[in-house]
Amino acid sequence: MNNAFSEEVIIGLRRQYPGLELIFDENEHREFSSFDYAFNNPDRLYKLKIKNKGMISIPDSIDIFTRLQSISLPGNKLNRLPESIANIEFLKSLNLERNSFCAIPPIIGQVKYLQNLNVAGNAISEIPEFISDLQYLKIIELTNNKIFSIPQC
Predict the structure, then answer these.
(1) Strands of the sheet with 139-141, listed across from one edge
(2) pLDDT at 6 over 70
């Protein structure tokens, strides 16, 4: 199967994130730490977690992982998300806690089935209107930001 990650990108990811947690089996939640398996079976990856690794960006081709349900990236240095994140149809949980976001990225408004959003510990100053359009959103964690008012419904 072809994937959108070049060999150079794969090698770089392996070096930069040796403790990457990948979960491939939706029912048994078995964890595998193999990039090779992930890239050869992108439709089997359900959970991606990269914690406290200083990551500054997410590859635009993240959407090759079509079955991702959870992306957890706490304690990194992210300040933007790729537009392609909206193409991950089954994404339900997005953890961006303790990164470098000054605003909730507008692309989040297009993540159709998002249920849980954690943007705690960033530098966010307002809650954008598009948040109210996320009809499946049940939990939004906003603590430790710079938000001083809640918009009227």
Answers:
(1) 31-32, 21-23, 47-49, 70-72, 93-95, 116-118, 139-141
(2) no
Residue 126: pLDDT band with limits 50, 70, 90: very high
Give buried/exposed letters for 106-118 (b at 16+ CB in 10 A, else e).
Answer: eebbebeebbebb
Q: What is d(CA 13, CA 34) in angstroms, rounded to the nearest whole number?
A: 11
pLDDT of residue 24: 53
User: What is the rounded CA–CA span in Å between residue 3 and residue 118?
Assistant: 29
**Strand 93-95 with 31-32, pairing:** unpaired
| 16-22, Cβ contacts within 8 angstroms, sequence gap of 24 or more | 16/53, 16/55, 17/50, 17/53, 17/55, 19/51, 19/53, 20/48, 20/49, 20/50, 21/47, 21/48, 21/49, 21/50, 21/51, 22/47, 22/48, 22/49
Between 73 and 4, residue with greater pLDDT: 73
Residue 16: strand, helix, or coil: helix
Question: 45 versus 80: which is more confidently predicted?
Answer: 80
